[in-house]
Specification:
Elements (H helix, E strand, L loop, with lengths): L36 E3 L1 E7 L6 E8 L5 E7 L15 E2 L4 E2 L3 E6 L7 E7 L18 E5 L10 E7 L3 E6 L7 E4 L11 E9 L5 E8 L2 H4 L6 E6 L7 E6 L25 E6 L16 E6 L6 E6 H6 L9 E6 L8 E9 L11 E8 L14 E5 L7 E6 L8 H4 L3 E6 L11 E7 L3 E5 L7 E7 L8 E3 L8 E3 L3 E6 L5 E5 L5 E6 L1 H6 L7
Antiparallel strand pairs: 1-28, 2-33, 3-4, 4-7, 5-6, 7-8, 9-10, 10-11, 11-12, 13-14, 14-15, 15-16, 17-18, 18-19, 19-20, 21-22, 22-23, 23-24, 25-26, 26-27, 27-28, 29-30, 31-32, 32-33
């Protein structure tokens, strides 16, 4: 990859969108004869991730120019056809382990090296059955960037549905506990839910998603919300405040239009993305600083909320309105899974409109959650947030079902999330969207009002790939199918996708015309 594109502003942080363009290639025309369908994107390397169902990849550049990939896994499930526990064997330890976090060295992306798996729970010896575990969400920050200014590397992860914890991963092969469940001192515990966090590496502010066991008794309405912590010193977390869409907190009134549905309900948080303080490193990439973008609803009854970060951190803990700058309330059949700000972009065709040519955009994804198109089709939206009080979608993306007979292929067909990295080589040029059985899709967003798909890659199923069932695990409706779950990128230009159906990790890179958009030659 082109070394000149290694950017100081490429920040590996903890989102999908594409528009059907007239120059879309046909997936079936690009089958390489081995079952991988692709266009202008090719496989560089793979790893089976011990056949563990995977949610989130996060790649981090270490000071010695090592590239380490952290993968959060879902809780262990069972094979819907046989009823047997899915694979849980760790070849390194020789033990069955509940799912947790896998750490790999991807310095050579052609040969990802599995370093260690940190289970959630206690390893067990066969033939005993391991507990389910699960640590879907993972963020990583350098201590040298955090206000603590030490020489360590820290990992923030979920712990099943019960806690969030911090590990010292300075030596990624030998993780050490910092604030963990096993040490009886997690960042926060006694939860009944966890989900996708965000951690500002320059300030230490962490937006942690979950629900306390005591929330119902305290008057909170159903669903997760945000618990904001200062993790500037990861060993000494400081709670700042709760945050939710107004109407979810104790003593509130469900607002319009959420009070019009039956039963009335305020959408709960899926996940946040912060651009950090104004003038910070993310602002320098073209993003609007001093903002936090919250996605609510996941797959239905959704909203995207824009919040003033400084007001969020400074207003009273019982104030859930002052910090809000604006929101987009979605159609009830769509939800907010990811809200990725791609920032201020000059619209090429609007150059003559001098006063209006630079617009501010957020990519909002509604997650597909059903199998074989048994609910409405989900979309990825380009939302113009230039006037923050009244954000509005101007374009959307969807993969044509006819391109690959995706509805009958099995499993989920639709968007899940986008990559969430700021800075070179892809930011404000290409957004990557994980699309379950349609793999990963790459879109040119240089004209956000007319985004065009420029590349895609659909992995091949392997012997590890699990079944997905259309009808409540009825064996006759189960099919083995790829379920590309999340996507991440690094500033070398590599793309990392992981699979919900146990297929593992694929490391990819763009080729052809798509590579040129990012500033690469096809032979780089």
């Amino acid at each position: 990859m082109k070394r000149s594109l290694l950017g100081l502003f490429s920040i590996i942080l903890p989102l999908g969108l594409l528009f059907v363009g007239t120059n879309r290639a046909n997936a079936r025309d690009d089958d390489d004869g081995r079952g991988r369908e692709h266009h202008d994107m090719k496989r560089v390397g793979t790893n089976d991730l011990q056949a563990r169902s995977s949610y989130q990849p996060t790649v981090h550049r270490y000071s010695n120019n090592r590239w380490i990939l952290f993968v959060g896994h879902h809780a262990l499930g069972t094979n819907p056809v046989t009823g047997q526990q899915l694979p849980s064997f760790n070849r390194i330890t020789g033990k069955n382990e509940p799912n947790g976090t896998s750490i790999l060295d991807v310095s050579d992306p052609r040969r990802p090296k599995f370093l260690v798996h940190i289970p959630v729970g206690t390893p067990v010896t066969p033939p005993a059955t391991p507990t389910n575990g699960g640590a879907q969400f993972v963020r990583v920050c350098d201590g040298s960037t955090l206000p603590i200014r030490d020489n360590k590397v820290y990992m923030l992860r979920g712990f099943a549905n019960s806690a969030h914890e911090v590990w010292d991963v300075t030596d990624p092969s030998k993780p050490l506990p910092v604030r963990t469940v096993s040490g009886n001192n997690p960042v926060i515990a006694n939860l009944t839910g966890t989900h996708k966090n965000w951690w500002e590496c320059d300030t230490g502010i962490a937006y942690i998603v979950g629900r306390r066991s005591a929330d119902t008794a305290a008057g909170w309405r159903p669903g997760n919300h945000i618990m904001i912590f200062n993790l500037a010193d990861p060993a000494n977390p400081v709670f700042i405040r709760d945050w939710a869409l107004d109407g979810q907190q104790p003593g509130s009134v469900i607002p319009f239009p959420f009070n019009q549905q039956a039963p009335p309900a305020v959408p709960s948080i899926h996940g946040p993305i912060s651009t950090g303080p104004a003038g910070g490193p993310i602002s320098l990439t073209g993003a609007t600083g001093n903002r936090v973008y919250f996605a609510y609803g996941t797959e239905s009854n959704g909203a995207m909320q824009i919040v003033d970060r400084s007001l969020l951190l400074s207003t009273p803990a019982n104030d859930f309105t002052t910090a809000e700058v604006g929101r987009w309330v979605m159609s009830p059949n769509w939800g907010g899974h990811t809200s990725f700000p791609i920032g201020k972009i000059s619209i090429p065709d609007w150059e003559p409109n001098e006063a209006d040519k630079v617009r501010d955009f957020v990519v909002v994804v509604s997650e597909e959650t059903n199998h074989e198109c048994t609910e409405g089709r989900h979309l990825t939206f380009m939302v113009d947030a230039t006037t923050e009080a009244r954000p509005h979608p101007t374009a959307n993306f969807q993969v044509p079902e006819s391109e690959g007979n995706f509805c009958s292929k099995g499993g989920r067909f639709g968007p899940h999330a986008t990559n969430e990295e700021f800075g070179p080589p892809f930011y404000q040029k290409i957004v990557f969207v994980s699309y379950f059985n349609a793999g990963v899709r790459a879109v040119d967003v240089r004209d956000p009002n007319n985004p065009q798909e420029v590349a895609f890659f659909i992995p091949k199923a392997t012997s590890n790939t699990d079944f997905r069932c259309k009808d409540n695990n009825i064996a006759a409706t189960c099919k083995i199918v790829i379920q590309t779950n999340n996507v991440a990128t690094d500033d070398r230009g590599y793309v990392y996708i992981v699979d919900r159906a146990n297929t593992g990790l694929h490391v990819l890179r763009l080729t052809g015309d798509a590579a040129k958009i990012a500033g690469f030659r096809d032979d780089d």
